[in-house]
């Protein structure tokens, strides 16, 4: 018998349980492809704004624990925000701007948002491509905003391609107006190998430096950025530091501070940082699922942030196994794994049906670019994994499961009807008698990603059964990961 520490959770006011663990990518209700996350804290609740929240209306998500994300539809005066929406709290209002938009404002983080107008520079001119790199249509590319301790307000944004990161101070009484000319803080440096284009950083002269974010810690300003571009698995986060929000900034020789580890989760960049419920810091970032001829499919990840004795920024990620939820452990950036490992990769299996080219092993190959598709006439498709085929006497202690469902490109969010996927997970020690450990046969939530904590159970076999599926979507399973010890 393998020993396993119990995974427990406390009840919330609505009867749900407060999560003690999470896994990447995060389960975000009603979301398909999602990227460029900005997470802000307003009171005791958190709000997520992201690329992919665009449909007939604009989607925003809220959470009280950074793990469970509830979907909302928000109204923006005149039109929705564009990609890469950046939000910030300033003087009791929430402001939002996206790629090439002016500034929106609301007293409620869920809106409705009024349009304050286009940005203007220190001479009153409306930004456009001819005026400054990265300026477009009255706004900026990949804008982000920073409120300093003295209530002064700053904007940072990215120029096109290798141009780099720019910024300026904003008028606190009119946040659409820049108080001075924009400044270039840094640009693409070919000597920074990780900033080069390509899945092997093989393009020596090309990059896209983007996604700025500012964090202040102990009087030092950490200007984060991403390169070489969101369509590469080498997409990563770097940082420059300075003693002033407008620089000068010094490159951190330990860059990048967040980079793929050649696992399933890669292309990790365009981050934001928010203070968690216990004062710890957490970063949210893109995860590149797929890039087929520049058709991007992305999700969202989260991991803890800290600072070492020398003041260097440290990000404990990207994590690929169950992690302790925010507020669970002190100093999570020093190590946040729960010691559960994947048990399901490349195991013997049985399956009810499979289509040519999309066979069952694609569902447990630790690869988000493949999937299992059952036969069209298979009413309740099932997949059974034999965790111990190579050692029949060995049992495993299973404690959780991550399920990545397929979602075709272009499926809208916003006011679309929920797309509930229903399923059941069973375990067995002998392959004959099965016990249900996860029952979501009556699920009503629209989650393309699911993470189920399981009371630790000893078993050898795990069976996954699809019991219900949105009729407008083709059935498919990108990945089933069984975690345990």
Short descriptors:
485 residues; mainly beta; Tachylectin-2, Chain A; Jelly Rolls; 2 domains; five-stranded antiparallel sheet; 36 strands; 0% helix; 41% strand
Would you write up a description of this structure?
A hairpin with a 7-residue loop joins strand 21 and strand 22. The protein starts with 9 loop residues before the first strand and ends with a strand. It folds into 2 domains: 24-320, Tachylectin-2, Chain A (5 Propeller); 341-484, Galactose-binding domain-like (Jelly Rolls), CATH 2.60.120. With 485 residues, the protein is mainly β. Strands 14, 15, 16, 17 and 18 form a 5-stranded antiparallel sheet that branches. A 5-stranded antiparallel sheet has the order 29-30-35-32-33, with no helix packed on it. The relative contact order is 0.13. It is globular. The chain has strands at 10-11, 17-18, 21-22, 35-42, 45-51, 58-63, 70-74, 86-90, 93-97, 103-106, 114-117, 135-136, 139-140, 144-147, 153-158, 165-171, 174-178, 183-186, 210-217, 220-227, 236-242, 250-251, 272-275, 281-292, 295-307, 313-315, 323-324, 341-342, 348-351, 382-386, 396-405, 422-428, 435-440, 449-459, 461-468, 477-484. The model is unreliable at 1-16 (pLDDT under 50).
